[in-house]
Amino acid sequence: MANEEWDVLRDLHFLFANDEKLHDQLVYMCDLLSNSGGDESPGRNDEEETTNESKPKAQSDKKKRRSRAKIPHENTSYARQKREIDELRLQVDLLREDLQEARRNAVKDNISSEWEQIAREQFFEQNKAIQENEKLRTAVHQHATFIDDMTKILNKKPRLTPVNDSSSDAWQLYKLAAHASLRSAAIHAIADRQYSRMKSKFVQVGLYKCTEDILRANWTPQPDGNVLVEYAYHVSLAAPLHLIGEAVWKVFSSDGMYMDLPPDSVETLETLDKFTLYRTFQRVRTEDGLTVHSNIVYKRFIENQRQVLVWRSVLEDELLPHMSRGSVHDETGWIQLTPISQSSCRITLLLHVIADPVHDFKPSSVDEHLESSRVILENFSFLQQPDEPGMFPGAPIKSNLRPNEMSFAKQTFVPRAKKMELSLHQAIKQVVQDYKEGQFSSNEQQITSLTA
User: Fold this and answer.
1) What are the pLDDT digits (tens) for 158-208?
2) DSSP states of 155-218 as a string?
3) Region Disordered: which residues (predicted)?
4) Number of domains into which the chain is organized
């Protein structure tokens, strides 16, 4: 603290009174002293009203005063004091202006920047995750205690009361209740939380406010031994925002998004409203009955200067109790559309997938995860540069991998991910071509009203 530099502006306000009345009194005193130099003697009028006998004496006094007035005014002690007071007043006014300016700058500094706001959001999410982990630890401890009690008291029927595990909070663990109202609220809550996390995720991977095109894949080992597969698309499109937004949402909300389903699979689409969907998918391997599930919530957000689409896998669904006996796909995605000009926009797509940790009923190592992800990226031609500028990537598959090269879950979900990329490519390509040919000129206003 001894070496800390003294901030003069920060402590300057202690030199002045905060009371404005005190400042007004100071101004009044200075004005009084300034005006008193030009006043005549207080007894002048009385002297003029005296008798004629006293007039010669009064005139002689006037002459004496006039003779004293000939002394240079600036050399008198009174004049010097007056100048000093005027200078002090000027200094006080200047310092008050400096203090006000310093306060204004301090207020500006206190206004959080956009990056600071993002940091605060990330800090909030971190604290929230810590609290959720603490709840999980408490629940694990409660269950461990319960198991211990069960081993000691086998002749009594146990009564297990979950702690902080109500149906209304289950959505935080990506669980859906069977009750219709709780189910709908949970779907919206899951989607809304994914929307609130989008900005932080874009910042973390370098996509936030980026002006260059990016096509990138990344694989990150997780503390639990799994691998997070990340695909990032950040490209400009040669069509307006609202046209691309409608085409993208149509891809995800269409019943025919995955038309060529395997014969051993079942898919359902539940529409909560025109901007919210819940898609369930199940596939069973006939040889051994191994089942894989993919249940995903989708929600669209339309704003003045952008459109957003988020999706998140549901890990448990009370209406699908058999999910606990199969492999559950864990996927998270964000799409953001922002305008570049009236005739172009930018699409940002970030996809996170937790790679299936099991292959032929055997856990895979981290190295095997990474190698499998690289092979999939190369053979399925993800993230390839489009043939034309202003288009979305969508290269055809180079070669299909043999069944023994991928787990049953990957055999199921990797082609679905490629289908999503190809569907987006085809839909966006059609919009760009139609826009260039002027086919939207007549009904563009109608499409705009649909997105409002």
Assistant:
1) 444 444 445 556 677 888 989 998 999 999 999 999 999 999 999 999 999
2) TS------SS--GGGGGGGTEE-SSHHHHHHHHHHHHHHHHHHHHHHHHHHT-TT--S-EEEEE
3) 37-82
4) 2
